[in-house]
Amino acid sequence: MAENRIFYAKDCDSSYLEGKKIAIIGYGSQGHAHALNLKESGMDVCVGLYEGSKSWKKAEEQGVTVYTAAEAASKSDVIMVLINDELQADMYKKDIAPNLKAGDMLMFAHGFNIHYGLINPPKDVDVTMIAPKAPGHTVRSEYQAGKGTPMLVAVHQDATGKALDKALAYGAAIGGARAGILETTFKTETETDLFGEQAVLCGGVCALMQAGFDTLTEAGYDPRNAYFECIHEMKLIVDLIYQSGFAGMRYSISNTAEFGDYVTGPKLVTEETRKSMKKILSDIQDGTFASYFLQDMKNGKVQFRMMREKAENHPCEKVGEQIRALYSWNKESDKLINN
Q: Which of 67, 150, 214, 318 is close enough to 72 for a disulfide, judged by CB 3.0 to 4.6 Å?
């Protein structure tokens, strides 16, 4: 499959989903966005949840029909799985596999379980991916604003000969074609997504910001100054990069900052750092990370909880609470966390 095509609204035909019922399994960040966007695009959509889910009432109040996951799968022709990676394989075996019909389309927003062989669908169903490159609340808000977020599309298995067409119709219905839907593969999406999260976006950035905070506070500087300079202002820089790339960001900062960028960046991201990144990527590619993650999930999330508690107790978190309380947007961010 080519990996460089980008599809837009003119390339997507909603008729490929006419007469088909779509089940969204899960109603979290992505689940609610997909279900509501599909509904407002005129698709026949339902939501599948486990008995007693706290999202059941919320989905019904928002006008979506809710069934158990097994019921939703049995009633539908397209099944999009939007629950946590570590829960998907067991749920698939219990609720979806017994209810798949020849010609159905099984969908994912992340390739983890298919790529690592945790889910192995029968040969007579399509297996595709639509992966929005934004959090669910952004997928929803951009759709409501008449816009869309960029998305990835991939076909793992084309049983009907129409898998890509159906996946594109789905992507368009949740707003992706308004921005652009990039063709990829399950392998590429999974490995690049995990690497980006670990080495740069989450693991790399958080560790760098905390190390900067620690360096300044250990040198005797006021923790509030350290928070402003190493954590708070990260958003300002990232927003500039998001809007106009590295060059646009550098155009907007001072000559002093730009000069420091060029001479200091290579001192931090050294050859040793790059070797570590290559090892991180290797562990993702050969399944080492996936096995490590899933084992901890099965063992009661012992290490996961310990690491989360340690991170939450870092001194920068307390200082951050004080700083964020100074700004009006802190109430909006609290809403996102609490919802």
A: 67
